[in-house]
Design goal:
Strand order of the largest sheet: 1-4-7-10
Largest sheet: 4 strands, parallel
Radius of gyration: 12 Å
Distance between the termini: 24 Å
Number of strands: 10
Shape: globular
Number of helices: 0
Helix content: under 10%
């Protein structure tokens, strides 16, 4: 895992977590980053995101890393707009199985 500065919300080892009504704005890197560390053996599978927004972030609006085992991640009524100005990044980067946007 990279040590990212100015991430809006970094999720590590949070299986079945729920997040709602978050508004993340103008972070230097990613607004939401689901990732892992060398000591995380649980992963972050089954998380649910409801009505969350990522605006004008330097990195991805929502970034989900495969090594975090985030299978079954669901995004409901979420928006990702005007992100990626600090490099070549997408508004949403989902690289996992069984996720729904």
């Amino acid at each position: 895992m990279k040590n990212l500065k100015n991430v809006g919300l970094q999720v590590i080892g949070a299986p079945n977590a729920s997040f709602s009504h978050l508004k993340l704005f103008k972070t230097n890197t990613h607004c939401v980053h689901i990732t892992t560390t060398a000591t995380d053996d649980r992963g972050s599978y089954g998380s649910r995101w409801y009505d969350c927004e990522a605006w004008s972030c330097g990195g991805n609006g929502f970034r989900v890393d495969t090594d975090a085992s985030p299978f079954g991640t669901t995004f409901i009524r979420c928006n990702s707009i005007w992100n990626g100005w600090n490099g070549n990044h997408a508004g949403v980067r989902l690289r996992v199985l069984s996720s729904v946007w």
